[in-house]
Structure formats: structure tokens, C-alpha cells
Fold this sequence. Notes:
The structure holds 2 protein chains of 2 kinds. Chain A is of the alpha/beta class. Helices cover 39% and strands 21% of the residues of chain A. Chain A has helices at 44-51, 54-57, 79-82, 102-112, 117-130, 146-158, 176-191, 203-206, 227-231, 234-239, 245-255, 267-279; strands spanning 4-13, 21-28, 33-37, 61-69, 72-73, 86-89, 164-168, 195-199, 212-217, 220-225. Chain A is globular and about 60 Å long. Chain B folds into 2 domains: 2-234, 3-Layer(aba) Sandwich (Rossmann fold), CATH 3.40.50; 236-276, no CATH class. The termini of chain B are far apart. Chains A and B meet through helix 6, helix 7, helix 11 and helix 12 of A and helix 5, helix 6, helix 10 and helix 11 of B.
Amino acid sequence: MALISFDNFSFKYIGADSLALRKINISIDEGEYVVITGPSGCGKTTLCRAINGLVPQFHRGYIAGHVYVDSMDTRENEVATLSTIAGMVFQQPENQLVTLNVEKEIAFGPENLGVPPEEIRIRVEELIDLFDLTHLRDKHPHEMSGGEQQRVAMASTLAMKPRILVADEPTSNLDPKSAESILKILSSLNKQGMTIVLVEHRLDLVAQDASRIILMNQGSIVADGTPKEVLIMGLCDEIGVGVPKATQIYKRLHLHGIDLLDVPLSGEELAQMVKEVSRR
Amino acid sequence: MIMLENIHFTYEGIYTALRGVSLQIDSSELVAIMGSNGAGKTTLIKHINGLLRPQKGRVFLDDRNTSHMSVAEIAREVGLVFQNPDHQLFLDTVEKEVLFGLKKLGFSEDEANEKAQATLEKLGIIDLVERSPFSLSGGERKRVALASVLASQPRILALDEPTIGQDALQKRYLAELLMEMNSEGKTVIVVTHDIEFVIEHFPRTIAMADGRIIADGPTGSVLSNQEVLNICSLTSPQMTQAAQALGKLYSDISPRLTQLDELEYAIMQILGSGIQ
């Protein structure tokens, strides 16, 4: 069975007048890097919450269908149990930071999972190093900038060594260089076998790392494929997907009767492909 | 006109956020402020609306020194939208949220309703008026926070990370609304990490690092200056990356291209077929 599997899952928040998710059927295998994108309000965050059980266990509402994570039904297993498999980084990092300094914040998750103190110490040091947090070690999370909070939230989630990392726009508050370095970390964790589910609007940042893009609109999945397959669909322009400019150029050249050999996702890929065509 | 003169600011005597910032922004300019996390961007715009007062240096709105003005007075002229909408939203419906500021500023019931309506429509959240802001998605909440400030049409708008959580269409609508307000003579200042958004819509960019302004000029030249990008933790726009890679092979491609149309044209030239 797939690591994450949505079986005809629908969800409506209490008090809402329409479904947040409509009959979602997807399966995600171990080791995939999935980017979820789509218009604001289309259900991306709800989908993330459904993976670690916050929907329906914390956010109550009307449910149909099931979500299974590592064969566990999220209706029947507590968030605490599910969170050891699927770690989540929230859209507003501030909302998940609970302790008085960065060290304690990173240690908080594994402490609650009963990880031995020596092991926790090792993880904390590794993550402080990996996310460049040394100068913030003793700082109160609420005194940090939005970008710093995002790095701390990511480190705290990874401290629990989840098999799946679910991250909801984890670089939105980061400057472009820091965003790039966080995304490099995610990509390398993925290469080491971690499953990544990432919500992102700025596809120019992640399209190259992702193995798959799931496009949502109004609570449904409307496209699902490799980045190159999904990003050239006309649908992307209709519903407002941020198609990388290099990919937009590919489409425009096609209209002018020029076909590059493949779909570029970055400026460098585009340059490479133009070179190839010009040499022929 | 906004003028900052050698502004210094240190939080609680510990963390120095601004180390001598001077700048001038004329009425009806569109300016982006970019730079590394912790560079002082948010601290800077909080000085424009008086939420923070300089510990050294002076802030002028036209020829008035803002140290002689109350925050309430400044708020009539400068609207600030925070980075995190949750710091700003507190009422139980979207409609009340947007009407709140308008009423505080003394608009009549009818005027307030009219302005609120128009702004909600432009930001695509008119259907959400009865909803609680806290039941909305992150991107929608951000637009409610924007609407609650834009509705009163302040002379100067300062927006902290307005594109977070917004899809490509919403970004375009937001840009159109800002352009429209700008063409009516309003000053628009955004703090953002969204390079592509800046490249597409903002003629002037101020790049900051470590409490100082590192570069201030036309967006294309600031964002294609590798040294500035390195110091300010910025990356090249995607089109510039492509242009730089192509520039090594084709001398007639400028490595300073930033726009999609420019690069498309250049590639058409290389591949030898004119624009149809």
C-alpha cells in the first residue's frame, strides 16, 4: 500500500458552506517529492492537515471517505501517533512555536516522543547547524523574524525524524537565498528517502526538485503528473498557477513554431535547450 | 513625499535593526524594498507610519517632521499592512473588518460601505463578506488584511509581504489594484522577497542588508547586479539567469535582461525566425 493514500475523501469545516475537499483520491509512495499547488483557498492546506490527522481530529467537520498514512486510518489514530510518521510545518510558523528558546523548541518534539536525552542533544546540534541557527540558539521564537521562525519550525519538525515532511509554503517569509538553501536541504532529505509534500505557489523555486505536481482547484484535484507534464497544460494559465517564466517561454516559442527539445523549468535549462536547438 | 534622514533604531538596546538609513520617496512612486531576513525592512516601514520612532535621525512626510505627529494623524496618510494578517484581523466577519478602519477614519456609513464594497470586489473576496476571517485560507486572510487598509485609500501605502499565499491570478489582481491607486497619485511601497513580482511591476528597488541600504535605483539594474544580490541574499530573476547563460554564447544577449518579453525576443533572434 502507498505511504499516503486518500480514498474518496471529502471534508467540510463546521460552519463553512462548501466542501474544502471533494472526493480526493491520491496515493503517494515513499520517496516521492510532491508539490501541491492551485489558487488561494482551493484546499491545499486542508489536504496537508488531512495527512497528519489534524483534519478531522483537531479541525472538526463533516467527513466522507478515508485517509491512510502508513496503513493507519487518520480517523482512528491520534495526531500524536500520526505525527511521528508525518511531520508538519505550518503556513504561519509562529502558530507552532511553543517554547522559550530555539534549543528547547527543537528538543520539544523528540522529548514528547520519549527519545533519550543524549540522542535529542545530537539531533538539536545537527539541526542548529543544518539550518544555520547558532546565533539564535537562546532567542525567544516570538522575537525572531518571520523567516527565522520558519527555519526554526522546519528544524523542530525534522527533529522528530518523520518519514514524511508536510510543509505548507515553508519559504514564504524567507529571503531568496535562504529559501534556496532550505529547498536544497529538502531536496537532499528527499534523496535520502524522505517523502516530501510541499504546498507552494512559486513553482520557479521547486519545479526542478519535485517528482510530481498535484494541481487543485475548488477542493478537487484537477491535474496530477510530472512538473513538465502539468506546467505546460493550458489549465495552469486559466486558474492562476505560477508557471515558471522559462516554461512560459517554451510555450510562446511553440506558438511561433519553434520547439525546444524538452520543457525547461529554470533559466539555465532554458538556455541549455536554446543552445541545442540553435546547433541543429 | 517621504524623507528619511539617517535613521537608527535598536530594539530594546540589544538588536540593532537600522544603522543610518536615508532615503527619499516621491509622491506617486512605486517602490519595492528587498533584502535579507533581519535586514531591517519591516523596521524601516514601521518608521514611515510612526509605529516606531527613530532613536536617531528624522522622518518627514512632505515638510512635516513626524515626531510632531501622533500615530493616529499619520495613519490618515499612511496605511500599513502587516506581514502576518493574524496580527491585524480581530473582528468576526470580513465586512466588519474592512468597515472598521473606514469608520475610525470618519467616513459616513454610506461612504464606508461604498469603499469597502469596491475594494472587496477588486481583491476577489466580495463573496466572503459574511465569513469569519479565521475560517479563511491564509491567502484569503492576507487579502482581507490588505482590503481593510486599501479601502480607505491612504495617500501612502506600505505593504509588508503582500504576495504571501497568493496565486498567480491574485498577484496580478493585486498588482493591477496597486498600479491603479498609483496612477491616481498614491505612493506604494512594498516589502517583499518575491523577485518576479518586483521585476514585473516595480520601477524602483531598494536593496537592504544588515540595517543599511546597499542599492537604490531602477529595478532592472539593482536586481542584475551580482554583488548587490550576494550582499542582500537575493537571487537573480529567472530570465536574467537564462540571459546570463545565453550571453556566454551569444554576445548580443545582454546579461542584464530581466523581462520575459525581452528574452523571448532575444531567443527568437538567435533561432533566426522573426516574430510572427
